[in-house]
Specification:
Layout (H helix, E strand, L loop, with lengths): L1 E6 L11 H4 L4 H15 L2 E6 L3 H11 L5 E5 L3 H4 L1 H10 L3 E5 L21 E4 L4 H17 L3
Parallel strand pairs: 1-2, 1-3, 3-4, 4-5
Length: 148
Amino acid sequence: MNILVLHGPNLNLLGTREPHIYGAMTLEEINARLEEWAAAHGVNLRIIQSNHEGALIDALHEARGWADGILINPGALHIYGYALRDAIAAVNLPAVEVHLSNTQAREEWRRVSVIAPVCRGVVLGFGWRSYILGLEGLYALLQEAKGR
């Protein structure tokens, strides 16, 4: 099983960026936790972080040839990233959106995701664990689709 993990804008600053909201764990530490989980479940991850919507879209297009699913934290692109949303819909792979913070409990403008409608699920507010919960959910969906 192959899963593309996408981290959107500003997530490269985790650990130092508003730790009272996003936690103290760095992106490298989150990626290590994801890799540990993946190794224990026989899953291959390709992990990409970009501050550029076009780079994330390019990664999605390329994933059509190898990935079974997508785990994405679009960062603030969840609010206005219509091109990213369209790319997720176009590649037609099961996707799960994750966020470290509970965007529903934050500013009004953060509460509507343009990405969520093209995803199979959304996980919010569990800090770095949102990624693991999202990965577990995606894995279960993919296993079910394969009849396992």
